[in-house]
Hints:
Elements: H1 3-15, H2 19-41, H3 46-58, H4 62-78, H5 83-107
Amino acid sequence: MTTRERLRERRERHRKRPLLVRALAALGGVVTVLGGLALLVLPGPGIPLLVVGLGLLALEYRWAEAALGHVLRQAERVTPATGRQRVVGATALVATTAAAAVAVAFWGIPGF
Length: 112
């Protein structure tokens, strides 16, 4: 079963829910998408929030389903495809953390 088929099944079940529940799901989707957009430029998990928000909105709106597909394709593009890329990324993270720890140990924390 594809993602689109599962989404269509969920949309059918969602349409049977009370109007208040549907409105709250749409409102939650809008708020989550806005937070995700903000976190694309601020530090934080922007793409996962966009996926969750668009997933909620896709229960009500077809345009959100298309946008969700686009965001998921973009997320796959930035995900490391090979184990070697993951190792390089983890090594860079460890090296940066170690360099920051050495700098703090050597120069101290400013203002303390």
